[in-house]
Amino acid sequence: MEYRNLGRSGLKVPVLSLGTGTFAGTNEFFKRWGDTDAKEASRLVDISLERGINFFDTANVYSQGASEEVLGQVIKGRRNKVIIATKATYSMGEHPNDRGSSRYHLIKEAEDSLKRLGTDYIDVFFMHGPDDETPVEETLRTLDYLVTSGKVRYIGASNFTAWQLMKSLAVSERNNLEKYIIYQGYYSLIGRDYEQELMPMLQDQGLGLMVWSPLGWGRLTGKIKRDSPLPEGRIKAGGLVGAPPVADELLYNVVDVLVQIAGETGKTVSQIAINWLLQNKTVSNIVIGARNEKQLLENIEATGWNLLPEHLLKLDAVSEQVPIYPHWVGKR
Protein backbone atom coordinates (compact mmCIF):
# COMPACT_ATOMS: atom_id res chain seq x y z
CA MET A 1 0.00 0.00 0.00
CA GLU A 2 1.35 3.41 -0.96
CA TYR A 3 1.57 6.03 1.79
CA ARG A 4 1.52 9.80 1.35
CA ASN A 5 1.78 12.75 3.70
CA LEU A 6 -1.61 13.96 4.86
CA GLY A 7 -1.52 17.43 3.33
CA ARG A 8 0.92 19.82 4.97
CA SER A 9 1.51 17.52 7.97
CA GLY A 10 4.19 14.92 8.62
CA LEU A 11 1.55 12.25 9.18
CA LYS A 12 1.86 9.37 6.72
CA VAL A 13 -1.42 7.80 5.64
CA PRO A 14 -2.34 5.11 3.10
CA VAL A 15 -3.66 6.48 -0.18
CA LEU A 16 -6.97 4.77 0.59
CA SER A 17 -9.06 5.08 3.74
CA LEU A 18 -12.25 3.24 4.59
CA GLY A 19 -15.30 5.44 4.90
CA THR A 20 -17.81 4.30 7.50
CA GLY A 21 -20.94 6.00 6.21
CA THR A 22 -22.33 2.51 5.59
CA PHE A 23 -21.90 1.50 9.25
CA ALA A 24 -25.13 1.19 11.27
CA GLY A 25 -27.64 2.75 8.84
CA THR A 26 -30.03 3.70 11.61
CA ASN A 27 -32.00 6.35 9.74
CA GLU A 28 -33.62 6.53 6.30
CA PHE A 29 -30.93 8.66 4.65
CA PHE A 30 -27.94 6.58 5.72
CA LYS A 31 -29.74 3.26 5.28
CA ARG A 32 -29.55 4.00 1.54
CA TRP A 33 -25.77 3.94 1.91
CA GLY A 34 -25.72 0.74 3.94
CA ASP A 35 -26.59 -0.83 7.28
CA THR A 36 -23.38 -2.66 8.14
CA ASP A 37 -23.55 -4.06 11.66
CA ALA A 38 -20.62 -4.47 14.07
CA LYS A 39 -19.83 -8.03 12.90
CA GLU A 40 -19.70 -7.06 9.22
CA ALA A 41 -17.85 -3.85 10.03
CA SER A 42 -15.24 -5.80 11.98
CA ARG A 43 -14.58 -7.96 8.92
CA LEU A 44 -14.19 -4.90 6.68
CA VAL A 45 -11.78 -3.32 9.16
CA ASP A 46 -9.82 -6.60 9.38
CA ILE A 47 -9.49 -6.77 5.59
CA SER A 48 -8.39 -3.14 5.47
CA LEU A 49 -5.70 -3.60 8.12
CA GLU A 50 -4.44 -6.79 6.46
CA ARG A 51 -3.86 -4.78 3.29
CA GLY A 52 -2.21 -1.76 4.86
CA ILE A 53 -5.26 0.49 5.21
CA ASN A 54 -5.19 1.76 8.79
CA PHE A 55 -7.12 5.00 8.16
CA PHE A 56 -10.86 5.15 8.91
CA ASP A 57 -13.13 8.10 8.15
CA THR A 58 -16.38 8.78 9.97
CA ALA A 59 -18.54 11.70 11.14
CA ASN A 60 -20.85 12.46 14.02
CA VAL A 61 -23.85 12.83 11.69
CA TYR A 62 -23.40 9.41 10.09
CA SER A 63 -26.52 7.69 11.45
CA GLN A 64 -26.52 10.31 14.24
CA GLY A 65 -23.47 8.88 16.00
CA ALA A 66 -24.18 5.19 15.43
CA SER A 67 -21.43 4.90 12.80
CA GLU A 68 -18.87 6.16 15.32
CA GLU A 69 -20.19 3.71 17.88
CA VAL A 70 -19.81 0.75 15.51
CA LEU A 71 -16.30 1.86 14.53
CA GLY A 72 -15.41 2.26 18.20
CA GLN A 73 -16.55 -1.29 18.91
CA VAL A 74 -14.52 -2.88 16.12
CA ILE A 75 -11.25 -1.03 16.86
CA LYS A 76 -11.41 -1.77 20.58
CA GLY A 77 -8.06 -3.18 21.69
CA ARG A 78 -6.24 -1.93 18.59
CA ARG A 79 -6.64 1.84 18.80
CA ASN A 80 -2.88 2.35 18.51
CA LYS A 81 -2.91 0.62 15.11
CA VAL A 82 -5.43 2.91 13.43
CA ILE A 83 -5.88 6.53 12.37
CA ILE A 84 -9.36 7.96 12.83
CA ALA A 85 -10.91 11.02 11.21
CA THR A 86 -14.28 12.33 12.28
CA LYS A 87 -16.25 15.53 11.71
CA ALA A 88 -18.59 18.07 13.25
CA THR A 89 -20.69 21.06 12.14
CA TYR A 90 -23.92 19.63 10.77
CA SER A 91 -27.06 19.17 12.84
CA MET A 92 -27.13 16.62 15.66
CA GLY A 93 -30.48 17.66 17.12
CA GLU A 94 -33.38 20.09 17.13
CA HIS A 95 -31.90 22.75 19.43
CA PRO A 96 -30.28 25.80 17.72
CA ASN A 97 -26.96 24.98 19.41
CA ASP A 98 -26.98 21.41 18.11
CA ARG A 99 -25.34 22.54 14.87
CA GLY A 100 -22.63 24.85 13.58
CA SER A 101 -19.00 25.57 14.42
CA SER A 102 -19.40 27.54 17.63
CA ARG A 103 -17.18 26.87 20.63
CA TYR A 104 -20.20 25.46 22.45
CA HIS A 105 -21.10 22.99 19.73
CA LEU A 106 -17.60 21.89 18.70
CA ILE A 107 -16.39 21.09 22.21
CA LYS A 108 -19.57 19.15 22.95
CA GLU A 109 -19.39 17.21 19.68
CA ALA A 110 -15.69 16.44 20.02
CA GLU A 111 -16.28 15.04 23.51
CA ASP A 112 -19.33 13.07 22.35
CA SER A 113 -17.34 11.61 19.46
CA LEU A 114 -14.54 10.58 21.82
CA LYS A 115 -17.05 8.69 23.95
CA ARG A 116 -18.70 6.97 20.99
CA LEU A 117 -15.35 5.98 19.50
CA GLY A 118 -14.04 4.77 22.86
CA THR A 119 -10.84 6.77 22.59
CA ASP A 120 -9.20 9.76 24.25
CA TYR A 121 -8.01 11.45 21.05
CA ILE A 122 -9.12 12.06 17.47
CA ASP A 123 -6.37 11.91 14.87
CA VAL A 124 -8.02 14.25 12.34
CA PHE A 125 -10.99 16.46 13.24
CA PHE A 126 -12.79 18.01 10.26
CA MET A 127 -15.16 20.91 10.06
CA HIS A 128 -17.78 19.11 7.98
CA GLY A 129 -18.84 22.33 6.31
CA PRO A 130 -18.65 26.12 6.73
CA ASP A 131 -20.74 27.98 9.30
CA ASP A 132 -21.61 31.49 8.17
CA GLU A 133 -23.10 32.42 11.55
CA THR A 134 -20.01 31.79 13.68
CA PRO A 135 -16.92 34.04 13.51
CA VAL A 136 -13.97 32.24 11.94
CA GLU A 137 -11.80 33.26 14.89
CA GLU A 138 -14.14 31.51 17.34
CA THR A 139 -14.02 28.26 15.37
CA LEU A 140 -10.25 28.31 14.95
CA ARG A 141 -9.54 29.21 18.59
CA THR A 142 -11.74 26.31 19.63
CA LEU A 143 -9.91 23.93 17.31
CA ASP A 144 -6.59 25.25 18.59
CA TYR A 145 -7.75 24.49 22.14
CA LEU A 146 -8.78 20.96 21.16
CA VAL A 147 -5.31 20.35 19.69
CA THR A 148 -3.36 21.83 22.61
CA SER A 149 -5.52 19.88 25.06
CA GLY A 150 -4.57 16.62 23.32
CA LYS A 151 -8.11 15.71 22.31
CA VAL A 152 -7.37 16.31 18.62
CA ARG A 153 -4.08 15.89 16.74
CA TYR A 154 -4.77 17.50 13.37
CA ILE A 155 -7.57 19.61 11.93
CA GLY A 156 -9.09 19.74 8.46
CA ALA A 157 -11.90 21.39 6.52
CA SER A 158 -14.51 19.83 4.28
CA ASN A 159 -16.91 21.31 1.74
CA PHE A 160 -15.53 24.86 2.12
CA THR A 161 -15.23 27.14 -0.89
CA ALA A 162 -11.69 28.17 -1.78
CA TRP A 163 -12.14 31.66 -0.34
CA GLN A 164 -13.58 30.30 2.92
CA LEU A 165 -10.64 27.96 3.34
CA MET A 166 -8.12 30.68 2.46
CA LYS A 167 -9.71 33.06 4.96
CA SER A 168 -9.40 30.44 7.69
CA LEU A 169 -5.75 29.83 6.87
CA ALA A 170 -5.06 33.58 6.96
CA VAL A 171 -6.79 33.98 10.35
CA SER A 172 -4.76 31.08 11.76
CA GLU A 173 -1.56 32.61 10.41
CA ARG A 174 -2.33 36.05 11.83
CA ASN A 175 -3.27 34.74 15.27
CA ASN A 176 -0.73 31.92 15.52
CA LEU A 177 -3.48 29.30 15.73
CA GLU A 178 -3.51 25.70 14.56
CA LYS A 179 -3.98 25.51 10.78
CA TYR A 180 -6.04 23.18 8.64
CA ILE A 181 -3.65 20.64 7.13
CA ILE A 182 -6.05 18.80 4.82
CA TYR A 183 -9.16 19.46 2.77
CA GLN A 184 -11.81 16.79 2.25
CA GLY A 185 -13.90 17.31 -0.86
CA TYR A 186 -15.79 15.75 -3.73
CA TYR A 187 -13.76 14.87 -6.83
CA SER A 188 -14.44 12.34 -9.56
CA LEU A 189 -14.34 11.87 -13.32
CA ILE A 190 -17.89 13.22 -13.48
CA GLY A 191 -17.24 16.00 -10.96
CA ARG A 192 -14.04 17.95 -11.67
CA ASP A 193 -15.10 21.32 -10.22
CA TYR A 194 -12.36 20.89 -7.59
CA GLU A 195 -9.68 21.56 -10.19
CA GLN A 196 -10.74 25.13 -10.95
CA GLU A 197 -10.55 26.98 -7.62
CA LEU A 198 -9.70 24.58 -4.82
CA MET A 199 -6.83 22.65 -6.40
CA PRO A 200 -4.61 25.66 -7.21
CA MET A 201 -5.33 27.07 -3.75
CA LEU A 202 -4.32 23.81 -2.06
CA GLN A 203 -1.16 23.67 -4.18
CA ASP A 204 -0.27 27.24 -3.24
CA GLN A 205 -0.83 26.65 0.48
CA GLY A 206 0.67 23.17 0.65
CA LEU A 207 -2.51 21.40 1.66
CA GLY A 208 -3.66 18.06 0.32
CA LEU A 209 -7.00 16.64 -0.75
CA MET A 210 -8.87 13.78 0.84
CA VAL A 211 -11.39 12.70 -1.80
CA TRP A 212 -14.91 11.65 -0.93
CA SER A 213 -17.24 9.85 -3.34
CA PRO A 214 -14.53 9.03 -5.90
CA LEU A 215 -17.07 6.99 -7.88
CA GLY A 216 -19.59 9.80 -8.14
CA TRP A 217 -22.25 8.31 -5.86
CA GLY A 218 -21.71 4.87 -7.40
CA ARG A 219 -22.28 6.03 -10.97
CA LEU A 220 -18.75 5.01 -12.02
CA THR A 221 -18.86 1.33 -11.07
CA GLY A 222 -19.76 0.04 -14.52
CA LYS A 223 -23.32 -0.83 -13.53
CA ILE A 224 -24.77 2.22 -15.30
CA LYS A 225 -24.25 2.02 -19.05
CA ARG A 226 -25.62 3.60 -22.19
CA ASP A 227 -28.91 2.07 -23.44
CA SER A 228 -29.10 -0.28 -20.46
CA PRO A 229 -31.81 -0.35 -17.78
CA LEU A 230 -30.78 0.75 -14.30
CA PRO A 231 -29.93 -2.40 -12.34
CA GLU A 232 -31.49 -3.25 -8.99
CA GLY A 233 -29.52 -1.88 -6.09
CA ARG A 234 -28.71 1.20 -4.03
CA ILE A 235 -28.94 3.76 -6.85
CA LYS A 236 -32.28 2.52 -8.15
CA ALA A 237 -33.56 2.50 -4.56
CA GLY A 238 -32.88 6.22 -4.19
CA GLY A 239 -29.15 6.27 -3.46
CA LEU A 240 -28.58 9.45 -5.48
CA VAL A 241 -30.40 11.67 -2.98
CA GLY A 242 -28.11 14.64 -2.36
CA ALA A 243 -25.87 13.86 -5.33
CA PRO A 244 -24.98 16.63 -7.78
CA PRO A 245 -26.73 16.31 -11.15
CA VAL A 246 -24.68 14.97 -14.03
CA ALA A 247 -25.74 15.20 -17.67
CA ASP A 248 -26.54 11.74 -19.02
CA GLU A 249 -24.32 12.22 -22.05
CA LEU A 250 -21.30 13.15 -19.90
CA LEU A 251 -21.85 10.13 -17.67
CA TYR A 252 -22.29 7.73 -20.59
CA ASN A 253 -19.29 9.15 -22.46
CA VAL A 254 -17.06 8.76 -19.40
CA VAL A 255 -18.31 5.25 -18.72
CA ASP A 256 -17.76 4.29 -22.38
CA VAL A 257 -14.08 5.24 -22.08
CA LEU A 258 -13.75 3.53 -18.69
CA VAL A 259 -15.19 0.32 -20.16
CA GLN A 260 -12.80 0.58 -23.11
CA ILE A 261 -9.77 1.01 -20.85
CA ALA A 262 -11.01 -1.80 -18.60
CA GLY A 263 -10.95 -4.10 -21.61
CA GLU A 264 -7.39 -3.06 -22.44
CA THR A 265 -5.99 -3.32 -18.90
CA GLY A 266 -7.94 -6.13 -17.27
CA LYS A 267 -8.95 -3.75 -14.48
CA THR A 268 -12.51 -2.90 -13.48
CA VAL A 269 -14.30 0.35 -14.24
CA SER A 270 -14.24 1.46 -10.59
CA GLN A 271 -10.54 0.63 -10.24
CA ILE A 272 -9.70 2.79 -13.23
CA ALA A 273 -11.81 5.69 -11.94
CA ILE A 274 -10.02 5.57 -8.57
CA ASN A 275 -6.57 5.16 -10.13
CA TRP A 276 -7.17 8.25 -12.30
CA LEU A 277 -7.63 10.26 -9.10
CA LEU A 278 -4.42 8.87 -7.59
CA GLN A 279 -2.44 10.34 -10.48
CA ASN A 280 -3.29 13.84 -9.20
CA LYS A 281 -0.45 14.76 -6.84
CA THR A 282 -2.64 17.03 -4.70
CA VAL A 283 -4.55 13.91 -3.62
CA SER A 284 -3.34 12.68 -0.24
CA ASN A 285 -6.02 10.08 0.28
CA ILE A 286 -9.21 8.67 -1.23
CA VAL A 287 -12.08 7.63 1.02
CA ILE A 288 -13.58 4.44 -0.34
CA GLY A 289 -16.92 3.09 0.77
CA ALA A 290 -17.91 -0.57 0.76
CA ARG A 291 -21.15 -2.33 1.59
CA ASN A 292 -19.47 -5.75 1.52
CA GLU A 293 -16.13 -7.55 1.26
CA LYS A 294 -16.29 -7.86 -2.52
CA GLN A 295 -16.62 -4.11 -3.05
CA LEU A 296 -13.84 -3.38 -0.57
CA LEU A 297 -11.39 -5.81 -2.15
CA GLU A 298 -12.15 -4.50 -5.63
CA ASN A 299 -11.52 -0.91 -4.57
CA ILE A 300 -8.27 -1.80 -2.79
CA GLU A 301 -6.99 -3.29 -6.07
CA ALA A 302 -7.13 0.21 -7.58
CA THR A 303 -3.68 0.78 -6.03
CA GLY A 304 -0.22 -0.61 -6.80
CA TRP A 305 -0.26 0.26 -10.52
CA ASN A 306 -0.63 3.32 -12.74
CA LEU A 307 -2.73 4.04 -15.78
CA LEU A 308 -0.74 4.55 -18.98
CA PRO A 309 -0.28 8.15 -20.18
CA GLU A 310 -2.55 7.52 -23.17
CA HIS A 311 -5.29 6.28 -20.87
CA LEU A 312 -5.00 9.39 -18.71
CA LEU A 313 -5.26 11.60 -21.78
CA LYS A 314 -8.44 9.84 -22.92
CA LEU A 315 -10.04 10.17 -19.49
CA ASP A 316 -8.98 13.81 -19.17
CA ALA A 317 -10.46 14.63 -22.56
CA VAL A 318 -13.80 12.86 -22.16
CA SER A 319 -14.42 14.29 -18.67
CA GLU A 320 -13.19 17.84 -19.32
CA GLN A 321 -15.43 20.56 -17.94
CA VAL A 322 -15.94 24.09 -19.25
CA PRO A 323 -13.94 26.50 -17.06
CA ILE A 324 -15.89 28.91 -14.91
CA TYR A 325 -15.22 32.65 -15.11
CA PRO A 326 -12.56 34.03 -14.97
CA HIS A 327 -10.54 30.90 -15.75
CA TRP A 328 -11.44 30.94 -19.43
CA VAL A 329 -10.30 34.57 -19.94
CA GLY A 330 -7.32 34.78 -22.27
CA LYS A 331 -7.22 31.03 -22.86
CA ARG A 332 -9.28 30.86 -26.05
What keyword list fits this structure?
TIM Barrel, eight-stranded parallel beta barrel, alpha/beta, 12 helices, globular, 332 residues
> Cα-atom Rg, whole angstroms?
19 Å
The CATH topology assignment is TIM Barrel
CATH homologous superfamily (4th level) name: NADP-dependent oxidoreductase domain
**Global morphology:** globular
How many E strands? 10
User: What's the assembly state of these chains?
Assistant: single chain
What is the domain tally? Answer: 1
CATH architecture: Alpha-Beta Barrel
**Percent of residues in beta strands:** 15-25%
List the secondary-structure elements in sequence, H or E: EEEHHEHEHEHEHEHEHHHEHH
Written overview of the protein:
With 332 residues, the protein is α/β, with parallel strands linked by helices. It has one domain (3-319): Alpha-Beta Barrel (TIM Barrel). It contains 12 helices and 10 strands. The strands form 2 sheets. An 8-stranded parallel barrel has the order 3-4-5-6-7-8-9-10, surrounded by 6 helices. It starts with a strand and ends in a 13-residue tail after the last helix.
Summarize the structure.
With about 325 residues, this protein is an alpha/beta fold.
Secondary-structure topology with pairs:
Blueprint: E1 3-5, E2 12-14, E3 16-19, H1 28-31, H2 38-50, E4 55-57, H3 66-74, E5 83-88, H4 103-117, E6 122-127, H5 136-148, E7 152-158, H6 162-175, E8 180-186, H7 198-205, E9 208-212, H8 235-239, H9 248-265, H10 269-278, E10 283-288, H11 293-300, H12 309-319
Parallel strand pairs: 3-4, 3-10, 4-5, 5-6, 6-7, 7-8, 8-9, 9-10
Antiparallel strand pairs: 1-2
Helix pairs in contact: 2-3, 2-11, 3-4, 4-5, 9-10, 9-12
